[in-house]
């Protein structure tokens, strides 16, 4: 299969991490050249040979490693050009170090030293321009906020590392200039140290100080003054020293402004993304809810209440909605209102429920329990007791007996009347039986089997709940008739049977 030419020119995302690591190592090593300068016991400059040899070996191995990386890993043309460009810059850094060491080793006095320092400084200025170009490349590829923050942090740390190294080199030159002036005048004068006061007080440029101590001290100095925008720096009248302080202030302000601006953009994008995901999640949840068939039969007011409760309580719906998990996550009052709207009109079509008042039917609705039957589950077995009456909200059922010849799955046209669907009942004969034999300990036996053809959602009325409602209704009716009988008997001056009368109390008047 052919490959897309456009894809070859794109920087592979998976290899960006490796290239980014190469970039960090490369820019972190260059400022270490400054630390090769030391002041020996004779108050003259010298070179840290061990550090120079280490940097020579490191650059050689690092360049070879990157070339092997290009050979071993098939890369796009753009990636190859990018990595080769990095290697060329490192070779220039290699040459820079050679020139730097030659100037120090072959020159005499502070002129050679100054030329070497200026050479490295000019090179690092152009090197910094390259860093910003690479920075823009990685910022364009970084998609996550954390990646962008890491890139900004690396650039900030690099600034502290770079300025710390330059400050160290200038501090060494400052001390040599001071030593030369003192020896020429043969006086011990108090020199204007400027921004290098910390270096002289700590003897950080002396040969006896370890490389790690120098690196950490200068790195701390660079970060501290970048963070404070150079406010604590008090330079002398030296031209280069003042230029150096100005560069630190500008770099610190630019980095701070750039970092804060990017952070605001990142926060804005993150907030926007979060809101979009939240809105999509809410819409998805509402879509799941609206796909539930019984939900469409509810009033708009009740639908709105359910959605508001869902958003307010961050109620998560997974997969399909059914009556069981819906009512379980809703308040009791809201669940009762749903059951009333779904079943109140249907109950008025069930046997003796037709003669019941709306108040009594509302009680029945409140006692309904949600239940879900699995596909092909037997709800009622022939010859077994009927314990409940079910109102079908969604799904299909069929009823059959042992005398039927039709299959429980392939129902014939003549027996289609035995199919139950949304709005139908099964076990409604339980209502008549409870009213006829409310105190009977026996159970109603089914003469048919009821089986779910699909997943069935139903609201179920248990036998015990139905008996409780009927007994309460009977007590209310009996109390009403008893009260009515008392009123009629009172009008006739007679005592109803079974009623006790209090003896008349006669009050004698004096």
Automatic annotation (TrEMBL):
Q: Where are the transmembrane segments?
A: 20-39, 51-72, 79-106, 112-129, 149-170, 243-267
Question: Ranges for the Cyclic nucleotide-binding domain?
Answer: 352-441
Record SUPFAM superfamilies: cAMP-binding domain-like, Voltage-gated potassium channels
Q: Which domain of life is it from?
A: Eukaryota
* SMART domains per UniProt: cNMP (SM00100)
The entry's keywords: Calmodulin-binding, cGMP, cGMP-binding, Ion channel, Ion transport, Ligand-gated ion channel, Membrane, Nucleotide-binding, Transmembrane, Transmembrane helix, Transport
- A GO BP term, please? monoatomic ion transmembrane transport
Q: What Pfam families does the record point to?
A: cNMP_binding
> What Gene Ontology molecular-function terms does this entry list?
calmodulin binding; cAMP binding; cGMP binding
The keyword Transport appears for this protein: yes
- Gene3D superfamilies from the xrefs? Jelly Rolls
GO cellular component, alphabetical, reads: membrane
Name the UniProt record assigns to this protein: Cyclic nucleotide-binding domain-containing protein
Q: Which organism is it from?
A: Acer yangbiense
């Amino acid at each position: 299969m052919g490959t897309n030419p456009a894809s070859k020119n794109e920087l592979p995302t998976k290899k960006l991490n490796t290239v980014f690591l190469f970039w960090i190592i490369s820019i972190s090593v260059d400022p270490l050249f400054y630390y090769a300068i030391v002041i020996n016991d004779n108050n003259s400059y010298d070179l840290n040979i061990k550090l120079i040899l280490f940097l020579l070996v490191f650059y050689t191995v690092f360049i070879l490693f990157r070339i092997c990386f290009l050979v071993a890993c098939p890369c796009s043309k753009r990636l190859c050009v990018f990595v080769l460009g990095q290697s060329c810059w490192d070779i220039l850094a290699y040459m820079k170090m050679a020139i730097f060491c030659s100037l120090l080793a072959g020159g005499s006095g502070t002129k050679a030293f100054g030329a070497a320092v200026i050479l490295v400084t000019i090179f690092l200025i152009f090197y910094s321009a390259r860093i910003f170009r690479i920075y823009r490349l990685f910022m364009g590829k970084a998609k996550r906020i954390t990646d962008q923050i890491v890139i900004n942090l690396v650039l900030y740390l690099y600034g502290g590392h770079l300025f710390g190294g330059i400050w160290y080199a200038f501090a060494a030159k400052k001390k040599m200039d001071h030593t030369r002036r003192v020896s020429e005048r043969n006086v011990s004068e108090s020199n204007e140290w400027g921004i290098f006061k910390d270096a002289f007080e700590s003897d950080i440029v002396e040969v006896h100080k370890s490389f790690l101590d120098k690196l950490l001290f200068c790195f701390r100095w660079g970060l501290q003054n970048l963070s404070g925008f150079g406010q604590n720096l008090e330079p002398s009248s030296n031209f280069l020293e003042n230029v150096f302080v100005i560069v630190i202030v500008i770099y610190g302000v630019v980095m701070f402004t750039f970092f804060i601006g990017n952070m605001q953009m990142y926060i804005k994008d993150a907030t926007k993304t979060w809101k979009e995901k939240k809105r999509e999640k809410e819409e998805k949840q509402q879509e799941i809810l609206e796909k539930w068939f019984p939900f469409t039969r509810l009033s708009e007011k009740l639908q709105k209440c359910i959605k508001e409760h869902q958003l307010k309580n961050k109620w998560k719906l997974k997969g399909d909605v059914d009556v069981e998990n819906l009512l379980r996550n809703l308040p009791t009052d809201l669940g009762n209102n749903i059951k009333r709207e779904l079943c109140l009109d249907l109950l008025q079509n069930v046997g003796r429920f037709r003669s019941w008042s709306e108040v009594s039917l509302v009680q029945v609705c409140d006692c309904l329990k949600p239940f879900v039957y699995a596909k092909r589950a037997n709800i009622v077995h022939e010859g077994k007791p009927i314990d409940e009456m079910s109102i079908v909200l969604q799904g299909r059922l069929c009823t059959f007996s042992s005398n039927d010849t039709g299959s429980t799955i392939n129902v014939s046209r003549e027996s289609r009347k035995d199919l139950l669907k949304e709005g139908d009942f099964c076990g409604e004969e339980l209502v008549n039986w409870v009213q006829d034999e409310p105190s009977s300990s026996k159970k109603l036996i089914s003469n048919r089997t009821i089986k779910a053809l699909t997943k069935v959602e139903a609201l179920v009325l248990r036998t015990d709940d139905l008996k409780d409602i009927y007994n309460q209704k009977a007590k209310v009716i009996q109390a009403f008739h008893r009260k009515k009988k008392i009123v009629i008997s009172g009008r006739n001056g007679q005592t109803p049977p079974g009623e006790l009368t209090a003896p008349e109390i006669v009050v004698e008047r004096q």
